[in-house]
Amino acid sequence: MGTLVTLDLPANSPVADLPWVITIGSLGDEEDWEPIVCGPYERAHALSLAQAVVADEDLMAVVEPLLPRADAEAIRDEIELARAAAEAPEDDAFGEEDHETRRVRPGRAPTEAEVREGWARIAARLAPVK
User: What is the tens place of the pLDDT at every residue in 119-130?
Assistant: First the structure.
């Protein structure tokens, strides 16, 4: 059985509406291959696909949001936010005890048509407003 890692989002989090990617790699040191990154997907599709892939394999899937940024300055701003979070005092940072592991039963993975419909919705959200 594999492992799925993702963010535990509060209800109505705007992060849930971002495009999501799945990074899949070896769970242990027995295999030596480069992880693959798939996506973008809608969050529900990414979670379902990752669960389906790692359910019966010794793989790790990390499901995380993409941060679409339109220019270099916006990317630099994200880097500064990440650096500031890393430099935050220990009591403000997430400690190991704050992480929760939950077992989940793999549900039905989305069909190719459902994933393609999700891609269309993602593209519509990322399309420039005219």
Answer: 999 999 888 766
